[in-house]
Fold this sequence. Notes:
alpha+beta; Aminopeptidase; 7-stranded mixed beta sheet; globular; binds coenzyme A
Amino acid sequence: MPPQTNVRLAQSYDIDSIIELDPIAKQELARRTFIANAVAAGQCWAAVEAECASALIGYGVLNRSFFEHDFIPLIVVKDSARRRGVATAIMRTLELRCQGGKLFTSTNTSNIAMRHLLGQLGFIESGQIENLDDQDPELVFVKLRTSL
Length: 148
Ligand SMILES: CC(C)(COP(=O)(O)OP(=O)(O)OC[C@H]1O[C@@H](n2cnc3c(N)ncnc32)[C@H](O)[C@@H]1OP(=O)(O)O)[C@@H](O)C(=O)NCCC(=O)NCCS
């Protein structure tokens, strides 16, 4: 059985560990700044092993940056911890934190893992945005309050 996952609000002392598990954060200052701001705003949630609360294995951000609706701009699970329900645990925590009746998120068309995850959690497609990444439209998804 995979180790149990707990999800808690990320603290400033988690930032280095979050960056360590996210290859893009390691490379890009903009991602690191985004993470630091999300943690400071209380919008970043960290997944940890149940037996070791300091061992971060993933994180997700919930804010209201999408037309003032609840929005998950980012969720990342450590490579070695994938496919054992960590993202599912993070998403369920974020769903419980929603204030409004609709929870939005988005992902590239090419991101099969995220699209499958969202389908499994009951998100439905809600349009697409061209011209963000070349040849890879951004798909918008929503989960409505009745299914939250
Ligand atoms: C997408 C991501 C967050 C999924 O994390 P995860 O912890 O592995 O996801 P879970 O274990 O909770 O998977 C739940 C379901 O999602 C789907 N899924 C997850 N990874 C998948 C993959 N590689 N291929 C196909 N489906 C996948 C499956 O339906 C899975 O259920 P199953 O394992 O019972 O078949 C992870 O792959 C990741 O961090 N990717 C890089 C960052 C990213 O693309 N984030 C999303 C955009 S912000």
